[in-house]
Write a structure and sequence with these properties.
With about 260 residues, the chain is α/β, with parallel strands linked by helices. The protein folds into 2 domains: about 1-125, Beta Polymerase, domain 2 (2-Layer Sandwich); about 130-255, Poly(a)-polymerase, middle domain (Orthogonal Bundle), CATH 1.10.1410. The chain has 9 helices and 8 strands. A 5-stranded mixed β-sheet has the order 1-2-5-4-3, sandwiched between helices. One of its GO terms (biological process) is RNA repair.
Length: about 260
């Protein structure tokens, strides 16, 4: 599996490298996401390539050229557009999803787009997470996946891969993380920031302490995480890492939304 991902990553990087030479606004690219950080799950092993634009590039060129590079790079793999704050291009190469994402080449804290932090996320986690902690991240991601709260998409409002990494970096293990979450208080702050936030849980981005990662997480999914954490601590079992667990523990959403935080 690892060798296959390496081959796909190299192939995708070579394709991007050829395309960016035609665009003066582009200053380079970097691998990011869970693959680059070594925290990927086999079933969720996307490869993210961040195309770095000169910070003086207009937003129009940033969008248009970023999308163009994505389609040109992946043209033999049936690429399509996905949307976040800015559009990015995705395709599947040899069974692995590859994302070509534009970002600005800026100094830390001088963000011009939501994706500018991503390269710093990769650098931070690469330094912060030991091989042991990477394993703990994978366990937490698996837990999220099988209680049906994994995913940062707007439609999902769940826990992203990066949030999984942040929680492990703050608490030190899967077990310590779910223990803390099982005792969660409404509005509790995880991390350090001088800024005040209004959300059921506040999770500070260690790369940008003015950013609350908890804003993107719905009360429903947070409730599922709290309930599942309490249930696991009460009776630990491998069943929590198998797909049926979400149906067995949380039979309906009505039981979730009334969870009271201590």
């Amino acid at each position: 599996m690892q060798q296959k991902k390496q081959r796909v990553a190299k192939k995708a990087c070579d394709l991007v490298s050829q395309c960016i030479e035609k665009h003066a606004q582009v200053v380079g690219f970097e691998l990011g996401g869970s693959y680059a950080k070594g925290t990927w799950l086999p079933e969720k092993a996307d490869i993210d390539i961040f195309v770095k634009f000169n910070k003086k590039t207009s937003e129009k060129d940033f969008r248009n050229i970023g999308t163009k590079i994505g389609f040109q790079s992946l043209k033999k793999h049936k690429p399509y557009t996905r949307h976040a704050e800015h559009p990015f291009v995705e395709a599947v190469i040899d069974g692995t999803r590859v994302n070509i994402v534009p970002c600005y080449d800026v100094s830390k804290g001088e963000w011009q787009s939501a994706t500018d932090r991503s390269i710093y996320h990769t650098k931070f986690m690469s330094q912060k997470l030991s091989n042991s902690l990477k394993g703990e991240v994978r366990i937490l991601k698996k837990f999220f996946l099988h209680i049906d709260v994994y995913g940062a998409e707007i439609a999902k409002e769940g826990f992203s891969g990066y949030v999984s990494e942040v929680l492990i970096s703050y608490f030190g293990s899967f077990e310590k993380t779910i223990k803390k979450i099982s005792e969660l208080k409404k509005g509790q702050v995880i991390g350090k920031s001088t800024k005040k936030f209004d959300s059921p849980v506040v999770i500070i981005d260690p790369v940008d302490n003015n950013r609350n990662l908890g804003t993107a997480i719905s009360m429903d999914n947070l409730g599922k995480f709290v309930l599942a954490s309490r249930a696991f601590l009460k009776k630990p079992s491998k069943k929590f890492f198998k797909k049926p667990i979400s149906k067995r523990i949380m039979k309906n959403n009505d039981k979730i939304v009334v969870v009271q935080f201590r």
